[in-house]
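Backbone geometry:

***
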Amino acid sequence: MTSDKQRTAADLRPVVEELSLLPRLEYDLARVSAAKKIGIPVGALDKAVISAKAERRAAEVGAGVGLGGEGDLLASDEDTRPPAFSDEALALSFAAEHRDRYRYVAAWGKWMLFDGRCWKAEKTREAFDRARETCRRAAASCDDAQLGKVLASAKTVAAVERLAQSDRRLAATSDQWDADPWLLNTPGGVVNLRTGAMRKHRADDYMTKITAVAPSNDMDFPIFRAFLARTTHDDVGLQNFLKRFSGYALTGVTIEHALAFFHGTGNNGKSVFLSVAAGILGDYHTTAPFETFAASRHEKHPTDVAGLRGARLVTTAETEEGRQWDETKLKQLTGGDLISARFMRQDFFEFAPQFKLIIAGNHKPSLKTVDEAIRRRLHLVPFTVTIPKTERDPDLKEKLKAEWPAILDWLIEGCLDWQEEGLKPPQAVVAASEAYLAEEDTFGRWMADRCELDPNDWTSSADLFGDYDAYARQGREHVGNRTDFTEKLLAQKVIVAERTNAGRGYRGVKLRRTPRATDDVAEKLEEAKKLAAVKRAKAIPRGKMQ
């Protein structure tokens, strides 16, 4: 006969089955009192629960008797299980409970929370609050009042959250977020931009961005179509380019190494188009001040680009008159190479840029150097139409919001068109870009106006640079240094550096003796040289020969 504190295996089975269904934390809290109540050692109860779990697992999957999985409620090796009510036990339970919704990124010092559609940076200390819940449950289940106070203390809660940050089920690295450049997250699902097909959201996509609307191919967008026709002066080629470039901007790839510069005086539609694209892209869009892309005498803080991580469209609404592009920064941001940045008071991290730049303005910033890299990158999109006051609709942006789902579908079509055709800039963009670059190419104009290429000619370095320096200063343009000048000369291929008895110089080029008849700048340059010579002659003292 058994005593009241000793039961048969048959008597224990219902209790063990019930205990084996409890979450890990609840079991840890209940195991001691349960073992005492039914009259068996705690270790024996643990073994019985493990056996019950193994039998249930085998019945469910048809095989397997061990428990060794990361989500197990009990460890198969008792030596690896932390003591009940310890900070470690509570942290493990916290991680098991929230493994599907929380991630901690040490590089950012942030918790990320999955809301069923995308991951968001947690800004209200929700993870800490959930750790409080874990600790409150533990305190409520504890028979020891003093221990209960310790479990519910701020110190214990903070320790649980801190330990959970390093749990492998919750820890994440900065480079695993938004890693697939061909997926676009929308409220209706995830779009594969290679095909245009949509599927359901998944937490393991690790997406932190989402568009403002889901695409719809069942809607029309007559207001947007009319707007496009009016703002492009019915230029279908320009409309299709805007469609392809904006479709390309949906992706996270940067293989085109291109930026679009929307230029034109006000009231021409460029800001409306940008607001539509930016509004639709939602989290995938961000703005940047023009200072980010403008030359400056002072070194810029790395936080100016840290906020661009993960964005696919970056816009700047207005350029400033008299400013100059930071050409090195433009090349870096559109080149596709890793960018080093950091948030305020955080460590540096590297990220691969996914964003495309669209900069809009009424003024054209100047360029120090017009090289092949700039020519490849810059697409000046001319907005030449000025909408008269009688046609301007102050509510146009609001009216276009109703068409956003259809416009997003149009942009996805543009992405597919881009993959098939490339950006394919139309004549309007090509001509405007070439004209702009020609205006900014001081060296190119000097070569055309002041130089002749002849393999038999040789000119000294001093004469060439002196003439170029005077030419550029006459036009109040950037001169640059001799090193830059030499690189540009030698890039002409037919010109080679050659040292003779007369000194350093270049074979294959000579200065024109007379300026081109049609060149006002060259004529003014010659006049300036003559005037300078007269002034020097007048300055020679009497009785002396020069």
Summary: The chain has four domains: 1-81, 82-172, 222-430, 441-538.
